[in-house]
């Protein structure tokens, strides 16, 4: 061992690098067929077959199922491989304004249990956290899930989520006890479960889940959600853009009506004052249309209501137009029930954005409404865990690291 | 060699990974002291000393100088290490509207030669390319530079630079023969020099150079240039954001005056129609101020001229405000001679952006005018070459790849 210039060594090292790429693809994406792995890591099918054979033999990877269910076309179903499911569990939690959502997954990305529990909008953070703990305990007991090797906890919270110093937002502006929320959540979950905790804005996590649920090629995504507020997020190369201080994505607080109505953030004329669901309902009432709920807003045939929806979408389109000119996304995804229920939102936003961009096909992103439902935040928290390498730095390697037989 | 479960092997593999990180840091950043390398790759000084000792012994890395010239404080000057300068040359070319700039560097990032050659704004692409070739030949002869191992050519061009399909821009909108420019440049340089060619918008390349010239921590940068037109670019984590179709960064064509004047891009009321130097000069004349050149625009004490500059900066600030809300940059850099000569531009833009963002310290980026001069595009082209891993995939490794003595 004094000098290791052995002829087979370069080969072994290259193979080790290839192994790492395969394991990383499985960590990030969950179960994949050998063909999908080959495309994901850019290696030949032959090489992938060799690598996965070795990984299977060492127990780092297992066969979980076949692609018979999802397979397009005929032919023999292909085995799908994944990291050993028992090597770790992951917990995704999404605290919304009126409910908490929980999803628990294994290292193969299989969701072992998921559920939701409602609470009142005025509920404080300590109670919200206790509600989540009780839900997690109940789900664990019902489904027999044990956190034998909990690898990480991803938590979504409402409101902007600065990375460093706490924001000086007006108390209560973004929900009860917003400013203190993050620290409480961090500490409470870390103490209770003894695992690393990652906290982020839940709209951003939903955006990540949506980007991954879309076409594989659509890795340049601008996501916007219209609900009680208006949130947004950017995804580049399958990863969230956090921004310099963790504040990226706040499309809802772009000024669209200079000198317009006061926003709860303290500014005037934010997009949220025009395009949130409460703002649309208020505009309808103001213009004499009798709609009192989101469902009525979406289903009304009153032309006044349609014009309110179009006005909101035009304001959204102007803001998205600026961002699209600078960020050049492949896809703009609009989330929130209203976008799903009222197609005029996506249609009008797309039209307005089109007029704001260069009149070239290459300049125009695709538009769609979100595919996921209420579980998008918890799903996104899991995706962020699977994809955030710092957190998973000590993710179990197929120990020991060694060159495989040549 | 049938089964390599040797005790020293895991150690050798870890060291190989560390070596790769050190080599990558030197590739991307040029000459660094051991302390700078340690900070860049996140390893201890002791580990770095061991790794660099081995790399020096194998000739992959050389000592180029000491940090005596740039060192802050007292103490013994530290050696600076770099990749073997003779292992490759890199060529950066920037085609502006009225001149071409060339810079030639070695693998240690040392600029071996640089220069510029003017041409008329109406000069066609074949002549521009011939002018560049002649300049490169002359620089090579004068400085004794030989392209023994030319690793890559980075080329900046004016106008938007879509990655895939050619844009359907009006002929001449972004300079003579814009649509065909890229293909000509690609092929001409590849044929002449027999090296891989990368072409990008020159404002984007300047943005990369500026981001790297700024504080090391400022890796989230929004760059804007006010000159004959208005260009922009986003840098995240030290890399340019290309966008889905290569069109990212076109801040100059964001609509800031709905229904405003016709822009050369074909749209109405673009930022460029208000904040480009020609637009500012035209606005001065329209309001009766007698200024005919950029220098007069910058030095005039006429309050009408100041108001024109402020109006341009307010429009810029509104557009930057939207982008900053969504992208959350650490720094906004404003390039172009007018930003350097008229401090009111940066000052007013900063004020306007501040009013568009959350009123929190964490939300506000730093503002500065650009530090680099006319050589920013060519410098950025070199930086893009050093940092673009695909191009450098076959960059010479310290061959052969092998584990070093334990």
UniProtKB/TrEMBL annotation, chains A, B:
Similarity remark: Belongs to the ROK (NagC/XylR) family.
Membrane-spanning parts: none
SUPFAM superfamilies with a match to the protein in the record: Actin-like ATPase domain, Winged helix' DNA-binding domain
Pfam families, per database record: HTH_24, ROK
Matching PROSITE patterns: ROK
Protein name: ROK family transcriptional regulator
Coiled coil location: none
């Amino acid at each position: 061992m004094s000098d290791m210039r052995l002829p087979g060594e370069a080969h072994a090292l290259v193979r080790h690098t290839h192994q790492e790429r395969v394991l990383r693809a499985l960590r990030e994406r969950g179960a994949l067929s050998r063909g999908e792995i080959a495309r994901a890591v850019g290696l030949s099918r032959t090489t992938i077959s060799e690598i996965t054979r070795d990984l299977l033999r060492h127990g780092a990877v297992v066969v979980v199922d076949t692609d018979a269910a999802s397979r397009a076309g005929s032919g023999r179903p292909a085995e799908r491989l994944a990291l050993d499911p028992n090597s770790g569990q992951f917990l995704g939690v999404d605290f919304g304004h009126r409910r908490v959502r929980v999803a628990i997954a294994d290292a193969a990305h299989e969701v072992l249990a998921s559920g939701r529990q409602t609470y009142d909008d005025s509920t404080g953070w300590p109670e919200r956290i206790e509600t989540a703990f009780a839900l997690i305990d109940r789900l664990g007991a019902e489904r027999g899930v044990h956190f034998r090797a909990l690898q990480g906890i991803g938590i979504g919270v409402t409101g902007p989520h600065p990375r460093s110093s706490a924001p000086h937002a007006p108390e209560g502006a973004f929900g009860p006890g917003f400013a203190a929320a993050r620290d409480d959540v961090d500490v409470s979950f870390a103490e209770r479960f003894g695992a690393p905790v990652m906290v982020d804005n839940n709209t951003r996590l939903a955006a990540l889940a949506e980007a991954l649920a879309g076409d594989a090629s659509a890795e340049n995504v601008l996501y916007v959600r219209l609900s009680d507020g208006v949130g947004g997020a950017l995804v580049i190369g399958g990863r969230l853009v956090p921004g310099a201080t963790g504040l990226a994505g706040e499309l809802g607080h772009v000024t669209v009506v200079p000198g317009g109505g006061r926003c709860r953030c303290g500014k005037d004329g934010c997009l949220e004052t025009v395009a949130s669901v409460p703002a649309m309902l208020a505009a309808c009432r103001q213009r004499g249309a009798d709609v009192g709920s989101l469902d009525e807003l979406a289903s009304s045939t009153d032309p006044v209501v349609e014009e309110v929806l179009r006005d909101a979408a035009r304001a959204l389109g102007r803001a998205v137009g600026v961002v699209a000119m600078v960020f050049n996304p492949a896809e703009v995804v609009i989330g929130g029930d209203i976008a799903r229920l009222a197609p005029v939102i996506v249609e009008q936003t797309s039209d307005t954005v089109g007029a704001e961009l260069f009149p070239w096909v290459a300049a125009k992103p695709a538009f769609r409404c979100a595919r996921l439902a209420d579980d998008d935040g918890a799903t996104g928290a899991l995706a962020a865990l699977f994809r955030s390498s710092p957190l998973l730095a000590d993710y179990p390697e197929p120990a020991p690291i060694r060159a495989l037989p040549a």
